[in-house]
Amino acid sequence: MSAQLVVEQATKRFGGVVANDSISIEVPQGSIVGLIGPNGSGKTTLFNSIVGYHALDSGSIRFEGQEITSLRVPEIARLGLLRTFQQTRIYGKMTCMENMAASDGECGRGIFDLLRPVSAETRENAEALLEFCGLHSKRHLRAGDLSFGQQKLLEFAMALMAKPSMLLLDEPTAGINPTLINGLIERLKRANQDLGITLLVIEHNMRVIMNLAEHIYCLAHGELLAAGSPEDIRNDKRVIDAYLGAH
Amino acid sequence: MNGRKQTLLAIVIALVAIALPLVTPDYRAQIALLWVMVLFAMTWDILGGQTGYNSFGNVVFFGIGMYASAVVQRDSGLDYFVALFLGMGLGGLIAVAVAAILGSMVLRMRGHYFAIATLGLGIAAAELAAGWEFIGAGSGMTTPLYPGDPGVQYLFFCYLFFALTAVVFCLLAWLYRTRFGLALNAIRDNEDKAEAMGLRTGLYKTVAWMIAAFFLGLTGGAVGNLLRFVDPRDTAFAGATYGVWMVLMAILGGKGTLWGPVLGAVVFHVTQELLWTHLLGWQRVALGLIIVAIVVFFPQGILGWARERWPERFGHKVEAS
Amino acid sequence: MADNLQLLFDAPLLIVQLLLDGILIGAIFAVAAYGMALVWGVMNVINVVQGEYVMLGGFIAFQLTLWDINPFLGVPVAAVILFVLGIAIYYGIIRRVVDKDLFISLLATFGLSILMQQLMNQIWGSQVRTAQSGLSTWFLFDYQVTVSQVKLVAFAGALMIGVLLILFLKRTRLGQAIRATAQNPRAARVLGIDTDRVFAATYGINAALCGAAGAFVVMAYSVHPYTGLPYTVRSFMIVVVAGLGNLPAVILAGLGLGASETMAGFILGVQFQVAFVFCLLVIILVFRNTMLGRKRRYLK
Asked: Which residues have a Cβ under 8 Å from the Cβ of B108 and sit 6 or more positions away?
């Protein structure tokens, strides 16, 4: 397994605050990697740097061997590196099916590729993915009328629709009914195994991340605190201290 | 409404549109203007309704068409119809080029900055035209007389504008069903998300505006001949009348829909024709009141209201799976 | 245009004259702009009818001169009348659009602006109106530079209004409530501030500022029912350049705009002065946007 995403010495400051202090992580092809840390430890900042929302002060980011440090959001997305948002973002006034069709990977192409109606294949694909996320019966509803948890699932389905090679998930289980969480973990694992999508997941729910990830990075105060298997992280005293606020 | 019913409705409207000017020769000028209004609202909605970029400056393209056609007719020495169609085409092309240039500048602005910038563009165009001697400066230009009977003149423009309307309507009906249409709606609903999904939002917005500009340019080229007079502030770049009407008609009918702007334009134009002559000197007061009333009490428009009332008629339903 | 430039080189005092004229009117722009910043910052509404309030203030002072009343009295009178009108318009219309989409409030105030244009046209006719202040003109540098006293008074009055406004916002309870609402309306509401009344007061104060500015405009320059929109656009530009809630910057931007506009009007010709204002608007917005875009762009 080669590393699909490599972040080297990434540093990002906001004014005087160092949100990320020379952080290096690697995400191997086909793996599920977790990113944990207390609130304000710089997880979302790192996500934003990777997908191109803001410039790094120093350091570099490589995706599938290509330097992406200076690319912008849509360009990185078209390379197959997508992210979902902590506060879900969907197209509220469009139906679920339209949301899916608009997320079809080909939407990033030039204008002439778009001047065709939505193909039957796209539609089938969308229905299958909605079925996969348990939203099939809601497919003709306006996305804005769905509950928060359903919107989160829809956002996940939209991300899959775009056929990314790597997906960055920002707290996929936050705000989701605990009884649905097991189903979601199952779906994430299947997306990883069946569709071959590499996952990098920010998560606060320890049970979820321990269950899901093969390898975990823990951030605190903008620095990389620990890295290792779920087992290592669980027993790492520094991680426990960070979460209990002993710093 | 499903697809077949919509097609049927469109055919009925087309038949009425062809028959009406023959049956009611006295109203030919008004009918021709009605189609112009429908064109205004439909073209405005391509960007304003479908992507949520509310432009007050689409009159720029209309005015460009008007002046281009008037200049060709004045200077080319060609036959009336040849010069007219040549001028319209030229106006459309110049409008497209201008839309591409302006679009790359102002379409990156969000929300009210875009609205105000386009408002500025509209008025700047009027003021610049009013100072440019080559196109008659403040006193404007006159267009040549129609070679033939005035009644036939209006009949010609009725059918010309109807044909243009039909073309635009069919084009948009198709366009909104393509993935390009979906991408435009995605920009409207959440542009950040659309970018995060890899959509080329800047390109799509600019192309949408260029399409609107092309047809507004064509329309403007012909309207100059219908009104027989091109004035920089009152007809060509008339931001306070045409420019606002476009927005208002689309909102009244329901922005972001195919039929909404058509409906809004018909309702607005008929109301206007019935009331306007009785309101001499108070027309802008009435227009202001109408604008305020619509945006305060009826911002979702006729179709938006219907969609909220009968969501299942618009296909929003939960299906048992 | 080249001739006019040549003229500027031949007579440098002309530049002094133009700058002076521009700075004097710039202060009046700043007053209206500060009102717009207030409404924008507190209510998140862009008040397109701003310029019509200025024109209305001018017509009120003009009306007083028809009744043989000194137009300087028009400054407070116009402010009071516009204040009441502003509050009435707030409760009648603005209140219903204040929490909606920005475009809705933009369009609603645009509608009001069209309405008021023709109402003023019906009442005062479509002539350009001025009010005679009775003050004279100073001549400097051997009659090469003229300073009309009324423009100086207007300049001083505009600055005084600015000072009064700062004192009001800093010292009074209502002023503090307005500032609190501007920072966070929801928190202000939770803490027991009646934001509805704060909005009404803010909108009324804005209209009063415009009214006072308008009374100066009619004495120092002129008013016309249909020339309100340039004042709206000037206010908007000043606010975009200076930012919300920074009065010194607003005044500076106002003076700068006044000076550049007068210069451009002279060099390009008066017929292009309005065109210059609107082109400048577009240029400023495009420039602002590229600067914002650059912030997001990668350093490497």
From this structure: B202, C289, C293
CATH superfamily of A1-80+165-247: P-loop containing nucleotide triphosphate hydrolases (3.40.50.300)
Phi, psi for residue A246 in degrees, rounded to 5: -80, 0
As for the ipTM of the complex, it is 0.87
In a domain, B264, yes or no: yes
Cα nearest neighbour of C112 on chain B: B288
3-state secondary structure A48-116: HHHHCCCCCCEEEEEECCEECCCCCHHHHHHCCEEECCCCCCCCCCCEHHHHHHHCCHHHHCCHHHHCC
Which of B189, B192, B196 has the CB atom closest to A93's CB atom? B189
Using a CB-CB cut-off of 8 Å, the residues of chain B touching A82 are 196-198
State which residues form the domain around B122. Answer: 3-314
CA distance A127 to A133: 10
C294 shares contact with chain A (CB less than 8 Å): no
Q: How far apart are the C-alpha atoms of B116 and B56, rounded to whole Å?
A: 8
In a domain, B320, yes or no: no
Looking at the domain assignment, is residue B319 inside a domain? Answer: no
pLDDT (tens digit per residue) in C234-277 = 999 999 888 877 788 888 899 999 999 888 888 888 778 888 88
| Whether pTM exceeds 0.95 | no
pLDDT bracket for residue C299 (50, 70, 90): very low
CB-CB contact of C148 with C137 (8 Å):
yes
Nearest CA of chain B to the CA of A72: how many Å? Answer: 9
Is B280 an interface residue toward C (CB < 8 Å)? no
Q: Could you state, in order of their start, the residue ranges of all structural domains in chain A?
A: 1-80+165-247, 85-163
Q: Do A69 and C300 touch (CB under 8 A)?
A: yes
Does the pLDDT at position A229 exceed 90?
Answer: no
Q: Domains along chain C? A: 2-293 (1.10.3470)
Do C233 and B131 count as a contact with CB atoms less than 8 A apart?
no
B215-256 pLDDT tens trace: 999 999 999 988 888 998 888 898 878 988 899 999 999 988
Q: What pLDDT score does A247 carry?
A: 46
Counting the structural domains of chain B, the total is 1
